[in-house]
Amino acid sequence: MQSQTTFSLSFWVSASRKINNQVSVYARITVNGKRANISLQRKVIVSEWDSKKGRARGNKQESRPLNRYLDQVKNRIYKAHDELVKEKAFICAQSIKARFLG
Question: Which 8-state DSSP code applies to residue 4?
């Protein structure tokens, strides 16, 4: 019998680490309450970030590529999770992060 796990993914910025009004974007993987953060090596202007949606605001020229990149990251993380499920491997936030990062 396999135990039930909870899995979620969110994107966030650390407003306390603001430099020149820009902040880094992070992905947070949560499995059964344990978290793993991944720096996405992307920056966004603080006022352009929508924390409720976890995306850049609007349809500006700067926002579209970032949101497209976030969609790609989301798909790759979900794919890594699905691969671990199919392999019947131990699923934790760190194992998904490791699979995502290669």
Answer: P
